[in-house]
Each structure stands twice: as C-alpha cells, then as structure tokens.
Design goal:
The first copy, chain A, is an alpha+beta fold and 224 residues long. The first copy, chain A, has ten helices and eleven strands. Chain A binds a DNA duplex (30 and 30 nucleotides) through helix 3 and helix 4.
Chain lengths: 224, 224
DNA sequence: CGCACAGTTCGCCCCAAACCGAAGCATCCA
DNA sequence: TGGATGCTTCGGTTTGGGGCGAACTGTGCG
C-alpha cells in the first residue's frame, strides 16, 4: 500500500508559510542567522527557533554555531531541487504572490538582496564580470582574478575587510534563476553605486532605481 | 518580504499523509476514482472527498466525471516532477519507507499497472513499438498504425472492444519515469502474454515473472 | 418506480501545531 | 564583573484543519 519514501513529512515541513519563507531565503545559498530568518518569516524569535529545530530534525537545513550566532543553510542540493520544483509548480498553478504592476517590474529589474544587487542588473553584472575575466568561476568556488582586482581598485571601490564573509559568492537570483554576485565584493559594488549617485533605493521596497546617467555609467564601468 | 510563488500552499497540500498517499498512487499516471483514492489514503469517503477538492482547487489534480464515477489524475507533469523530487529528497534524508529486497527488483523489472505491463519490460515494449512504427506518438495523442494493427492480428492478440477506454494510452512509469503502453491495447498484450504462458503474476504482489522461454519469445515478438 | 451505489455536503468534535510572553542559557564586550 | 545580545526552553492560549456520522444528490440498473 505505502510504497516509496515518506513524502508527506518533508512536504509538511515546507507547508508552513513561515518555514517556507525561511527556506526561500536560504535558496540564495547564503547561510543566515536565526534572527535574520525570523525576520524573513515574520515571526518572533521563539517561534523561529522552534521552526528551525523542526527543519533541522527533518534534515532540510543544517546548523553551524559560531559564537552566539547560529548560521543555517540548506542541508543539500536536493532540498534546493525540491524548492525549485515547487516554485515552478506554484508559478504555473497561478498561485503567484507577486503583484504585477510597476513596482514589480522595477523589482525584477534591479533590487537589493540583503546588501548586494539582484535582478536583471545583478545578473548582467555577474555575466559581464565573468565574460571579461574579472571573475573566475569554478565548481563551488568563485574568485576575483588579478585583472578583476585591478579593475576594482581602478574604479575606486572599497571592500569592507573586517567581515568574515567571503569576498565573492554566487547567489541564485529568484526572478532570473541565474547567479549574481554576493559576498563582500557584491556589497562593495552596490555601495559604490550608491556613492556615485548612480542609483538609490525606492522607499519601502527592495527596488533599486538607477538614474538615466547612472545606468549608462554603471554599464560602462563593467562593460555590460 | 514575500517574494516569489507561494510554495507553502502547494507544499501544505502534499504535506498531509492522506493526500500524499493519494498523489503517490496517482504517480502511476493512471486516473483513479475517488473511492480508490480513499482506500489508498486509508480514510473515509467523506474525508477523501474533502481532500480531493483541496487538491483540485490547488491545481495539483484534475477531475473527469464519467457517469457516477469521478476520475482523478495529476494535473500536469510539473506535479509529477515535484513529487519525484520530494521522493528523492525523502529517500536521502533517511525517511525510507521502502524495504529493499528481491521483491523490489522484480517489481522494477516487470509488474502490472492495473491491467497492463509496467517496469523495465513495459517501457522497453513501448519504445520498441514506437521504433518499429507500430505506434504513432504525438502530443497528447497515441495511435496504432496500420502496420501496428497488422502485427497485432498476426500475433493473435484480441482487443476487448466493449470498453469505452481508449485503444492506446501512454502511462507514466514510476520506476522508469518514462512512458509505457496502457489502454485496451496494453491490456490485450498483457493478456496475450499470460495466454501464451510467457509470464505469470507473482502471488500477493504486482510483480510479473517471465519464464526464460517467455522472455525470449516476448522480446522476439515485438522486436525488443 | 425503487433500490443500490458513488460521491458530496453538513455539522460537530478534537487535537496537533503555531504562536507569544517570560524566563533561562550562552557568548561577547567593555 | 556587569550588561547587552542572540538564541533556546517553558508554559499556556488559540485555531486551523483533519476526522467521521448522518443526511443529501445524482447516476445506473432492473
């Protein structure tokens, strides 16, 4: 009667909106702290803690303790595969949560993902940097090349050195389904964009609005 | 905050053990009635009805009314993809429910899917019939060609003509993830296999055991 | 027409689980 | 050492949803 693995346990874990939001946030590949995930899920710290325990027990996420922080990430690529499949299905069944409108288009075009650039712009930046040899991509690895380093200094981009975060990191873009640049470098570039006045955040959303001149300057700077 | 498609709704639908069992049963690709699904899920008819409504509303399954029966099947391949991904993940997280054993291998090799042949053998049969031009496959359509018809009569296979069931039908194979042959033709062929003494069902399971001679004869007959 | 059967609707019960306030650990920093 | 911070544990409340008995609808059949 009951063939096969026990699907329902796993699905039930994903089936709670709070936990689903946490997992979606972790789709970036980046490890997040319990507090960040609580905010993402829109619940209190206690509730988040309980949820995270459940997800950990269900082997959907793994935990790394660092000092007083607990960092969580997806336990394996299989989890990402499931989430990806679910997103695809949910999109097709018309359960979109995105509200089509001007704001949505803006978000799709350029938005912040924590502290770096995502959306069309983010992906284009990433692609261009790879194409021009500024970044060296490998399996599970991403490095800034010598000429990439040169370019960065030439542009006057400063990288926060204190943080333990990796310099470069791929981050899966939700709307594009492709990688964009995260890590200290990603953050540095976005800070630079702000500093140059090329773009600014739209109040109340995660959208980033480029000025006409800023758009041109940004593309020119990275050869997009 | 809440980007992307609403994963949790879909996942929650799969997250109930009863509904998960129903969906797993529908993974065969065959349409099942509400009663059959209720039995599969181990719940009463009323409860099953409610669950089926939910799954239908969530666009995970579709319903076809035929007389006083309601036939349900998976709404799309995307649903099957999600279920497959979940099975894979659940298997790796150690939530196995399958018991590995000799019976399992036999099932994978050849088994009945309601009244036709599934497993390795079923898929091989289907592929061979397509390759030899006995079957004509199209999008959402499957037809027996003239030379296919000739072959069938030559082999002395009789097709039940009373049933309203389609002559040919593709059926998604769970273990192989590829199509095999269902419909009246699929049934006729399996009956022929039994009649010729090429194989017989293993008591108490859905496995079909071919004799050494039967295996050779069957393959020869269809050019597998 | 009357009966049988498949499925649905209604009403109600009940419990697992989601939630938070408050308190308790553990770690970091000054 | 004391206070701030990040996270967990405990206790108690609430509710969404799964479950079934009973009654209703619709189809098939003789």
């Amino acid at each position: 009667m009951k063939d096969g693995p026990d699907i329902s346990r796993v699905a039930a874990l994903i089936g709670d909106p709070g936990r689903a939001n946490m997992l979606a946030a972790l789709m970036s590949g980046k490890a997040l702290t319990a507090g960040e995930l609580a905010a993402e899920a829109g619940v209190s710290a206690q509730t988040a803690s309980a949820h995270l325990q459940g997800l950990e027990a269900g082997r959907l996420i793994s935990r790394a303790r660092q000092g007083r922080h607990h960092y969580f990430k997806l336990a394996s690529d299989d989890v990402a595969v499931v989430l990806e499949a679910l997103m695809g299905l949910a999109a097709k069944t018309g359960q979109l949560r995105t509200r089509t409108g001007p704001r949505d288009a803006e978000l799709r075009q350029a938005r912040v993902c924590y502290n770096h650039l995502a959306g069309d712009m983010g992906v284009a930046l990433f692609d261009a940097m790879v194409a021009r040899g500024f970044l060296d991509v490998g399996p599970d690895r991403l490095a800034l090349t010598a000429i990439g380093q040169e370019k960065i200094t030439q542009l006057g981009i400063v990288l926060g050195g204190k943080s333990r975060a990796p310099l470069c990191r791929e981050c899966l873009d939700w709307s594009e389904r492709r990688s964009h640049l995260a890590g200290r470098l990603g953050r540095g570039i976005l800070d630079h964009v702000y500093a140059q006045g090329w773009a600014e955040r739209v109040e109340g959303t995660r959208a980033v609005r480029f000025t006409r001149h800023g758009d041109v300057a940004f593309r020119a700077a990275f050869g997009i």
